[in-house]
Amino acid sequence: MKKRVKNYLINLMKKSRKQSGFTLIEMVIVIAIIVMLLIIIAPNLVNQRNHAQKKTDEAFVTTLQTQVELYQDNHPGKKVTSLDVLKDGDYLTKDQESKLGKYEIDKDGKVRQKQ
């Protein structure tokens, strides 16, 4: 009986000395799964960013078109041939004025983004 208890205690001590944790292979597998998820997600994030930028540009074109029409209402008889005339009044903020270089006005008086 003493020998059995002694062997039981020795086995118990051996088990308690083992440290539990992740093996190197388990860590490599986890990292591989994370990398695969990033590979799947990254292109979608880039597409969403491009889509958001496109919508922002479309909204700014609408804002500029509205300001051109407001300018023409305030200055009857003057045809707007350049968006630079909007800088002379309170039509645009300084931030909006800095973005004017990417846009132009066509023959019909419509604002569009430069090609």
Automatic annotation (TrEMBL):
One annotated Gene Ontology cellular component of this protein: cell surface
InterPro entries per record: ComGC, N_methyl_site, Pilin-like
The UniProt record lists the keyword Signal: no
Recorded topology in the membrane: Single-pass membrane protein
Pfam family, any one: N_methyl
Keyword vocabulary terms for this entry: Cell membrane, Competence, Membrane, Methylation, Transmembrane, Transmembrane helix
Location in or out of the cell: Cell membrane; Cell surface
Major location category of this protein: membrane
Origin superkingdom: Bacteria
Entry keyword Membrane: yes
Residues that span the membrane, as ranges: 21-46
GO biological process, one term: establishment of competence for transformation
Family the UniProt entry places it in: Belongs to the ComGC family.
Protein name according to UniProt: Prepilin-type cleavage/methylation N-terminal domain protein
